[in-house]
């Protein structure tokens, strides 16, 4: 994508777009201007044909140090219009857009991840962190509760006891611990973070994008349904996938396994055949 932003950096290679929060001197704390940049970028990247997978990361030592206590909170106390505008943009890109994004998303957590940053962390489909990344629900130190959507994000992602423990104590924890409590998929040594993220991203670019999208949507949606609604929803979802995607409609995977004997899902990588 050609557009340049003041508070974020965007770089695409082989269908994988890295979006980096770019306020390293402020540990990528989220100012109102950063929220506006992210909202605009995510809208554009959703329609960018070069972007197949989106990786969200941060420049410098931090992934994101949460909301900017000065620019997002203090400086908008006496400006309700700006406060409302930035609050709306903040929620829009971090949750409404990211949690239902049209492309798979990976949080690549390179360093500090605090407070409000947990919302975009939980909104991304996958999360990989450096072993020594530092996570913290520091709100308790500022006399605030994990607000916006953070408390909800926590109990939705981690086991409730861990959510309560870290929210109430504000105790920081590492990438390794974040893996143990189910907040991220896995942590890796920092010097392997980019390569391991690329490995997952490349895997995603090779799968059928329609099935990946519908699976992401389905797994997220059924979580809040009872079994009767879930079964009904999944049946309809499969029907619409069948209609939306020629490869699925032609049951290519099944032909390869049963007729051509060219593909076994349980064994090794699979390059999708080119479509006409
Ligand atoms: N808001 C505003 N500025 C911030 C924030 C933030 N959330 N986090 C860091 N900064 C600024 C610092 O004020 C400092 O600015 P300065 O150079 O103008 O003095 C600069 O970033 C660097 O910060 P340091 O503290 O010097 O960096 P260090 O690497 O030693 O520590 C750390 C990094 C651990 C992230 C520390 O800055 C910190 O604890 N920040 C607060 C994080 C936090 O509690 N976030 C939650 C906010 S509340 C919410 O999101 C709802």
Strand content: 15-25%
The average pLDDT value, as a whole number, equals 93
Largest sheet: 6 strands, mixed
Helix content: 40-55%
CATH class value of the largest domain = Alpha Beta
Bound ligands, named by name, code or SMILES: acetyl coenzyme *A
Category by helix and strand content? alpha/beta
Strand order of the largest sheet: 1-2-3-5-7-10
Task: Describe the protein.
The longest helix has 18 residues, at 80-97. 46% of the residues lie in helices and 15% in strands. Helix 1 (32-46) runs parallel beside helix 3 (80-97) and helix 3 runs parallel beside helix 4 (117-123). It folds into 2 domains: 8-205, 2-enoyl-CoA Hydratase, Chain A, domain 1; 209-258. 36% of the residues are buried. With 276 residues, it is α/β, with parallel strands linked by helices. The strands form 2 sheets. Strands 1-2-3-5-7-10 form a 6-stranded mixed β-sheet, with helices on both faces. Acetyl coenzyme *A is lined by residues 26-27, 29, 61-62, 65-70, 112, 114-116, 138-139, 142. Acetyl coenzyme *A (ACO) binds at residues 26-27, 29, 61-62, 65-70, 112, 114-116, 138-139, 142.
Fold topology:
Elements: E1 8-13, E2 16-21, H1 32-46, E3 53-58, E4 62-64, H2 69-73, H3 80-97, E5 105-109, E6 112-114, H4 117-123, E7 126-130, E8 134-136, H5 150-157, H6 160-169, E9 173-174, H7 175-180, E10 186-188, H8 193-206, H9 209-222, H10 227-244, H11 246-249, H12 252-260
Helix pairs in contact: 1-3, 3-4, 4-5, 5-6, 9-10
